[in-house]
Amino acid sequence: MKTRVETISTDGTNIRLINTGSQQTDLISLTDIAKYKNSDEPGEVIRNWMRSHSTIEYLGLWEQLHNEAFNNEAYTNLLIEAGSNAFTLTPQKLHKSGPK
User: Fold this and answer.
1) Residue 21 DSSP class
2) I need a surface site. Which of 6, 15, 34, 35 has the fewest CB within 10 A?
3) pTM
4) Count H helices, E strands: the chain?
5) What's residue 98's pLDDT?
């Protein structure tokens, strides 16, 4: 399957839409969006966003709606941890809380 990349532009920022052919929908580059706030260190913007309790709630709701194998117990544990100043969430850690 061939990867298709398209670009949209908003407020002078180019954002890639990526489809590898294995998904039913496009992926949006979060890094490109984060570059709008901090072009030198978009990873810092993403890390801060991933720590936000409201972001974790949003991701949990998205998974509950779109992932039949969503592990609600592991997600609840992530929400509890999210109150800690030392809490960090990576896509890999979120994925581990996924299917049972």
Assistant:
1) S
2) 6
3) 0.67
4) 5, 3
5) 55
